[in-house]
Amino acid sequence: MKKIRLGEFEEVVMLTVGVLYNEAYGVSIKKEIETRLSRKVSVGALQSALKRLEQKGYLQSRAGDTSQERAGRPKLYFEITAYGKRVLEYTRSTRNELWDAIPKIALDLKLSS
Amino acid sequence: MKKTVPPKFFLRFFRWFCHPSLHVYIEGDLLELYQERVEKAGKGKADWRFAIDVLLLFRPSIIKPLEGYHRLNHYGMFKHYFKVCWRNLVQNKTYSLLNISGLAIGMTCSILILLWVQHESSYDKFHTSADKIYRLTCDVRDFKTAVSPAGMAEGLQEEIPEIIASTRLSQPMKTLFEVNDQKFEEQQVFFADSNFLEMFSFKLLKGNAKTALARPDGLLITASIAKKYFGDEDALGKTIKVDNEEIFTVTGILAAIPANSHLQFNILLPMIRAAQTERDLIDKSWENFGYYSYLQVIENSISTPEAQTFLEQKIDQIWASHVTTFEVNFQLQPLTDIHLHSDLQIDVPGHGNAQYVSSFSLIALVILLVACINFMNLATARYSRRAKEVGLRKVVGAYRSQLIGQFLSESSIISFLSLLIAIGIIYLVLPVFNDISGKELSLELLEGKPLIGLISIALITGLLSGSYPALLLSGFKPILVLKGKMRLANSNLLFRNSLVVVQFSLSLLLLIGTAVVYNQLNFIKNKNLGFKQENLLYIPITGDLFSKREALKTALQQHSATSNFSIISELPTNLSSGSVNVGWEGKDPDAQVVFPHISVDENFEEVFKIELISGRGFSRDLQTDANNYMVNEKAVEIMGMNVNDAVGQYFKNDDTEGVIIGIVKDFNYKPLQYAIEPMLMRWNRGGGNLVVRTPSGNTEEAITILEKIHQNLNPAYPFTYHFLDKDLENQYQGEQQMGMLFNIFAILALFISCLGLYGLSAFMSEQRTKEIGIRKVLGANIFGLVNLLSKDFFRLTVIAFLLAAPLSWYLMNEWLQSFAYHTTLSWWVFALAGMIILFITLLTVSSQVLKTVFMNPVDSLKSE
């Protein structure tokens, strides 16, 4: 796997899309992140991240049904692609490798202090 | 349930900017959130949050791209041209290198020359009233001079209403200055009228321009002189001792004199001080020509040549009403013409030459043209390879104008690339160029004018060099080209060949020019001046030295190294005094002849080794010799006498009557641009210079002895000595510099032509690789093949030579005519230049030809 650059926010968005599985669209993703991570997410930041991830091929989208409270506007649902899944796994494994590589002593000191 | 709606304005704004593919979905999200917030926090807060969300959505990834009628330029097309151009450059590295380096070198030369030309023609334009100031110059027969009588400036201003101001300047002097026991002899010291700074816009850093020269003991110094004498102290109001006795106060400090001023001075002394002792100034003389007079006229009063002639005639008349003994024609020389258009005698030093400026401008053009031709040649040769591309473009619908645009933009890209390289080179070589040309030029890229100049040079070069290939290529018939039926390589052969001929003719022209200039400079160096210039050492007679001359002579005679000496009024390098007031038996009363004169002593002929044809030299023992004269051959001829009977004839100069005692062979006492004029030698009653002929090899010793004697007799003055032959050489410094530059540019032009020839021969040989292979297989020998491939180029060189030789003969003859003494154009110069060009052509072409010829036919024929 070459050249994978996944920003922190992008990673959070992708993972959330995974969490929500079939129900991941703009508002639900936003709410999920806000409740789980207790941080504010603007529509603009989220949408541009989603668009970017879709362009990179990590996510794919499909138009959903319309509903009353959206004044007849359809939802755009997102799901992780196979490639996206591999990217997530790769990111995770590199993080783990880094964690494992930290000498015990350094962490202990950090933790005890 | 009543629907609440979000703020209309923001919704509309969102719909306007949002990317259409995202629009409905995001709008849905926004509305969903809005409804929720209305329920939770009320309409006000929801509206507010909605607005913020919309504004935060206004970011590049969400905004829709420009499209349809939003596209206002052909950016895409240009991008495409650029890409194609770049790929072509990278694909043919050798050709790109030849092209770009040729253009870059050409541009470097042209820009350097243009910088120089611009500097030369900017002289004196910085004065606010530059276009209204004229210098009064005059001629008495063939003797043209920049000086005029002391009383004229003021007198003319009184009588001619058009003249509103006048100011005078003395001739430059060397003067001794002293501050706190620091003594320096300063050059370029002038006396100036008190209104000097009102007429000329030299910047005064400190002091009052109106009063600085109004008191007899005030003087103006430049900032660098102030620093030299006073360091960082404020020089204003300090005193300086001049010539060991007079005390002056610094009344003003001038900013550095601009390099493009024809007047270059270090120190200005007040004219009213000189007026206390100088006879000419006291009498307001109209007869003795010794001062530079500048006149300022009313705006537009000299707008036509007729008006100027009218005014000049008026001046002649006014002068004639003051002086009746001889005739003079006066001219008004525009201030801005002085630097380039002066060939006057007794002028301030350091003039330029309009001829050089125009010939160098021409050279700049020629070099750029040669570089452009290179480009065209290589391009037309190469572009046959791009014929298919053109054909295809036409098939898919390209207009001819679009193709022309493509090729022109391609050549412009290349020329701008070259410009960048050229600018880099200029920054590197400018110090060297300044060194050779003796100027201080700089390339100020950040200023508007030079930048526009550079860009237009690049643009013109690009368009010019791209024009022919563009027209040629865009005219291809797509069907023929795509079918491969067009024999492109030969279709424009004639044009290419004539370009090569033009290129080589121009290079030859420059080469022959260089050779002739070099010859002439050599001629000047080795010309027999009529006296021996080697081993002549001189020291100016200053201070007490003249009053102690008897002691000086005795001291000098005691040493063999210095015993051969003479005291003369002026050096025969550039004699600046002349007299019209001469008379002899049988002189035509209307005849007017200027006799340059020099005052000499009894050792003159001996020291200078000037040949005495008839009569004798001056003698110290004969009292009457003080009133007698020696003349040169030319004078004898002018007076209508002959060498044998002239000795003993009556002769008078001013009011001193005497006889001619001796005749010397003509010798040059002015730079060689001037022919020898009748000359008069008088008995030296004043100082001047002590000239010593040292026995060869004893120069060091002589200098030590002279220094000791000087120290004893004239301790107040610093000891300085000069060599006459060095001075003579320096007189031709301007010519030497120009010769050097000419040389460099000629070589560069030749080099650029060779780059082109190299590329062309490489291309031709490459095209004929298969042909050569077949010929070899069929048994052609190497010699025949080399002959086959290179004879065309030889023919072109010969044609170029036939064109260039007569043209350069004509041009160089013109140049030589500006010297009164010059070499003749000898045939071998042309022969040599021709041989050199032929040799260089051979060298350039052969490298490629031989490569092709020695190629194994198996390799060249195996493919296909």
Quick summary of this structure?
The complex is a heterodimer of chains A (113) and B (864). Chain A is α+β, with helices and mostly antiparallel strands and 113 residues long. Chain A has helices at residues 8-20, 26-37, 43-56, 82-101, 104-112; strands at 59-66, 74-80.
State mean pLDDT of chain B (0 to 100 scale).
85
* Mean pLDDT over all positions of chain A: 85
CA radius of gyration of chain A is 17 Å
Strand proportion of chain A: 5-15%
Widest beta sheet: strand line-up of chain A: 1-2
- Structural class based on helices, strands and sheet pairing of chain B: alpha+beta
| Unreliable stretches covering 5 or more consecutive residues of chain B | none
Specify the biggest β-sheet of chain A: 2 strands, antiparallel
Helices of chain A, by number, come to: 5
The description of the largest β-sheet of chain B is:
8 strands, mixed
Q: Percent of residues of chain B in beta strands?
A: 15-25%
| Unreliable residue stretches of chain A | none
What general outline of chain A do the C-alpha atoms trace? elongated
Cα separation of the termini of chain A: 39 Å
- Please give the radius of gyration of chain B in angstroms: 39 Å
Order of helices and strands of chain A: HHHEEHH
Query: What gross morphology of chain B would you assign?
Result: globular
- Counting copies of identical and different chains, the oligomeric state is heterodimer
Counting DSSP E segments of at least 2 residues, the number of strands of chain B comes to 25
**Number of contiguous helices of chain B:** 29
Q: What are the salient characteristics of this protein?
A:
heterodimer; A: 113 residues; alpha+beta; two-stranded antiparallel sheet; 2 strands; 60% helix; elongated; B: 864 residues; eight-stranded mixed β-sheet; six-stranded antiparallel β-sheet; 52% helix
